[in-house]
Amino acid sequence: MSTVPKVKLSGGLEICRVLTGMWQVSGAHGPVDKAGAVEAMQTYVDAGLTTFDMADIYGPAEEIFGRFNSQLKSKSSERAMPALQGLTKYVPRPGPMDRKVVEKALQCSMTRMQVDSLDCVQFHWWDYRDKRYLDALGHLSDLQQEGLIRELSLTNFDTQRLEEITNKGIRISSNQVQYSLIDQRPAAKMEQFCLDNNIQLLTYGTLAGGLLTERYLGKAEPNTRAELYTASLSKYKNVIDTWGGWRLFQDLLVTLETIAKRHDCSVASVATRFVLDRPAVGGVIVGCRLGVAGAGQHISDSLRSCSPDLKLTAEDLAAIEAVTHRSRELMALIGDCGDEYRR
Fold it and tell me: Where is the NADP-dependent oxidoreductase domain (predicted)?
């Protein structure tokens, strides 16, 4: 098993700096083979990638994790098995946020994941005008104190709300936000606040759903549903359009390929390494279509991206900046982290 670097969250949980994302089994990326997905998880664990990110709204993601977790425990008597870290999300519909509602939701996640407590609950809220998110977080904080949750975290909260929550005395371990070479909004305000308050950023979209890879270098702009055949490809193609368009994106891919050749790695490894090196970033979430043939082929790229041997130089960063400074300012067009979900 490879040695994958870890980071410790404020509650003491150690997670891999490259996490395996399970949004891709939600159904928005095509049919899901549950049995195949469970089987595929072993490949990640064998590679040292033992941290999985999921949500209560990601279709069968928690169930898949639970089935694999159960299988892993049943084998523990045969040989020492590495511990899994399961980070899930609590994404409630608008409504009353009393303790019973919150606790019931967590119990459902625990049942599906086949665990007695939750490693990390990442809370998301759709409408800031509805202040009941503070009620929910208050109950989550209490449940954390009672041992039901190890780490209390957020998903797609902006800096203003992150500060508001922290000022209420609620300890937040991490905030999951979009962060990539084409979306560097966290650098504007979020990073510094997180550094000042011992909060890690867990990032997604770092490979733009697979667009930030050699596969799209020199390719014609994809626009049809057949070309943008997953929710990720469609979503991040829209981000590219807002950021600066396909021609500028091609310039970025050419630059990344040059850097990748210099370091004997892939474009994906360079893109991931760039975000891993950003201040306050604890880990990068790389999504995988578990159970789909060939879905684990990117494991070597993930391992290379977090290898101590891969170090982006000042020359590399200057070359990247020469392209990205020509892009539009997403902070002005979209707003702070997570604002894209509340427009």
Answer: 19-323
The mean pLDDT of 171-195, rounded to a whole number, is: 98
Please give the backbone phi and psi of residue 211, each rounded to the nearest 5 degrees, phi first. Answer: -70, -30
In tens, the pLDDT along 52-89 reads: 999 999 999 999 999 999 998 887 655 666 789 999 99
d(CA 263, CA 270): 9
Q: Comparing C-alpha atoms, which of 250, 273, 249 is closest to residue 260?
A: 273
| C-beta separation of 182 from 328 below 8 A | no
Residue extents of the structural domains in the chain? 6-341
Residue with tokens 């490693």: 119
Paired with 267 in beta bridges are none
Domain 6-341, what fold? Answer: TIM Barrel (3.20.20)
Helix, strand counts (H, E) of the chain: 12, 10
Provide CB contacts within 8 A for 77, sequence distance 6+: none
* Secondary structure letter of residue 9 according to DSSP: -
Q: Report which residue type is found at 179.
A: Y
Burial class (CB in 10 A: 0-12, 13-18, 19+), 231: middle
